[in-house]
Amino acid sequence: MTQYIMRRLLLLIPVMLIVGVLVFTLVHLTPGDPAAVILGPDATSEDVEDLRERMGFNEPLYLQFFSWFGGVLQGDLGESYYLDRPVTNALLDRAAPTILLTVYALTIALVIGVPVGIISAVKQNSIIDRLAMIFAISGVAIPNFVFGIFLIMVFAVFLGWLPSGQYTSLAEDPVDHFRRMAMPAFSLGFSSAALLARLVRSSMLDTLKEDYVRTAYAKGVAFRHVISRHALRNALIPAITIIGYSVGTLLGGAVVTETVFTLPGMGRLVVNSIARRDYPIIQGAVMIIAVMYLLANLTVDILYVYIDPRIRYGD
Amino acid sequence: METSRTRDAGDADSLRDTGSRKGFLKRIGPQSRWYWARQMLENPVAVGSMIFILLVVAAAFIWPLLSENYPFRLNPVGRLEGPSADFLMGTDQFGRDVLLRGVFGARISLAIGLSVMMMSGILGALIGLIAGYYPRLDTPIMRVMDGIMAFPPILLAIAVMASLGPSTGNVIFTLGVVYTPIISRLVRGSTLSVKQQLYVEAAQSIGVKDFGIMIRHIFPNTLSPLIVQCTFIVALAIIAEASLSFLGAGVPPEVPTWGAMLKDGQTVISRAWWMITVPGLLLFATVLAINLIGDALRDAIDPRSRQR
Question: Which residues in chain B are contacts of A287 at CB distance < 8 A?
Fold first, then answer.
C-alpha cells in the first residue's frame, strides 16, 4: 500500500511537468508581444521594453520556462502586474472561500445524490424513481451559474429569505457565513448531486441483481441490512470514481459561481484578472487548481483500494 | 386493450401498405444497420427533443426576418419594460426585444456547440487512432491528453480565452482543444481492441497502408460510442460558451448570446425577471433536449445501457 502511494506520488511529477508546460504556454499564446498587450495601446516603447526586461521575456523561451517552473516547485508563482504583490500570497488570501465552497458543494452533492440514487434503485420504476430521475436529468442540464441566478431571484429578491452577495468568513460569524454560502453551495453542488444520483442508481441496480444479494435474502437477512451491508457497499465503488471527477467540475464551477454571488475567492480573482491582463495571477490560479484536482484524484484512487480489497494496484 | 388493437392494425397495415411511415419503420428489423434509427423514431422523448431543437433553429433563423423588432434595434423610450403584446417577454436596458434576442442567441450557441463537436471529434478521433495504433506513440500522446484533463475544463477555457482575447473563433478553438482528450481516450480504447481483430491483420498482410487501415477498417468500428459522446460534447460546449460569455471571456459583448444576456440580466435582477428567465430557460431546455437525444442514441446503439 505504501509502495503504491509512493509510486502514484512519483507519477505525479511527469503530469505536473506537462501541466506546467501547458500553463506556461498559455501566456505565450497571446498574439503579439505579451508586454505590449499587458500595458495596452497607450504605453511607450520604453515602458514595453522595461516590462519585457522585468518579466524576463527577452530570455530564450526554455530558460523562461525553467526559471518559472523552478519557482513554482518552491511555491513562488511570480509577481502580479496589477496587485503589485506575490501571486502566491494573493491567491492564498483568496483560497478559503473557494475551498469552503467546493467542500460544501461536494457535501451537498453526496447528501442529496447518494440517498436519492439508493431510493430510486430500491423502488425502481415507482413514482419516486421517476421523479428522482427527472430531477437527475434536469440537474445535469442546468448550468450552475444559471441555477445560481434563479436561486438569487427566488430566495433573495422575491422571498427575501437569504442574503446574496458579500462574504462573511467562518471565523467571523458562522451563522451568517452559512446563510451566505447556502445558495452558492447549493447551485454549485446541484449538478454533481444529479450526476451522482444517476450513477448510484444504476450501479445499485446492477448490484441488486448479484448472486450474493439473492443469497443474503435467501438466508433471511432483513431487507434493510441487505441494502445497507451487502448492496450499498459494493454499489458505492463506482460512485467514488465520479467524486474525483466531481472535484474538478466543482473547482471549475466555483470560478463561475463566485462571480455570480460575488464571493472573494480565487475564481473571482481570476475573472477580474482577465480584463486587467494580469497573466501571472491566471497562470498561478490555474496551476494551483490543477494541482488540487490531481491530489483529489489521487486521494480517491487510494480510498478505492481501501474500500475494495479486490483492487490491488502494486503489480 | 385499445392500444393493442391499434398496434395489431398497424402491423396488418404495414404488410399491405409499406409506404406509410409506421409501416416503413416496422420493416427495419433488429438485423438492419438502421435499427437504431427506428428505435430513435419510436422513442417519444427523443422525437420530442429533436422537434424542440428544430423549432429553436427554425425560429432563430426565420423569426428575426419576419419580426419588425430587430434583435439589435435600440429603443431608448421603452427600456426594461415588462412583457406586453409588442414585446412578448419584455425589453432589456436598451429597449431591445428580450425574447427575440434570446431566440437569436440560439444561433451562436448551437453554431459554437456544433463547431466544437466537429473540431474535438475530428482532432480527438485522429489522436486516438494514432495513439491506439502505434504503441510507441501511445504513452507520450496520452500523457499530454492526461495533462489537459488535469484542468477543470471551464478553468482551462478561461485561461486560454484570457490570452487569446474574446472572439467566436477563439471560443471554438479553445473549447475544441479542451474537449479533445475525452474523444481521444474513447477512440484510443476502441482502437486498441479493434486492432486485435483478424480483419486488421488480414489488411496488414496484404499490404494496406497504415493510414488506410486506420480510416477504413478501424475508424468505422469506433463510431457508435464516438457519435454518442459527440452529442454530449455539443451540450457541454453550449454550457461552457454560456459560462465564458457570462464571465465576459467568451464571444464579444455586442453579439447576443445567452451567457451575455444572463450577465446583463443579473445586474437588474430585482427589476426585470424576464431578462434572466428567457435566456436561462432557453439554455436549460436546449441542453436538456440535446442530452436526452444523446441518452436515446446511446440506448438505441447499445441495448445493454437501456435498463439503466
Answer: none
Chain A residue numbers with beta carbons less than 8 Å from the beta carbon of B154 are 252-253, 255-256
- Residue A244: which of A199, A203, A293, A286 has the closest Cα? A293
**Mean pLDDT, range A142-148, rounded to an integer:** 91
- Tell me if B247 and A256 make a contact (CB, 8 A cut-off): yes
In this prediction, residues B92-111 reach a mean pLDDT of: 81
H helix or E strand, kind and range, residue B96 = none
3-class DSSP state of B109: helix
At B243 the pLDDT is 92
Helix intervals (H) in chain B: 2-16, 21-26, 35-41, 44-66, 98-133, 135-149, 153-164, 168-194, 198-205, 210-212, 223-247, 258-267, 274-301
- Please give the Cα distance from A246 to A194 (Å, whole number): 11
- pLDDT at position A105, please? 93
What is this structure's pTM?
Answer: 0.85
Does B269 lie at the interface with A, CB-CB under 8 angstroms? yes
Cα B42–Cα B47–Cα B51 angle in degrees, nearest 5: 155
Give the pLDDT confidence of A35-87 residue by residue, as tens digits.
Answer: 777 777 777 778 778 777 777 777 777 888 888 888 888 888 888 877 778 88
pLDDT at res. B5: 42
Residue A14: list chain B partners with CB under 8 A.
Answer: 143
Mean pLDDT confidence for B99-126:
90
The full DSSP string for B117-134 is HHHHHHHHHHHHHHHHH-
Q: What is the pLDDT of residue A311?
A: 61
ipTM of the complex as predicted: 0.84
Rounded-to-integer distance, Cα A286 and Cα B174, Å: 15
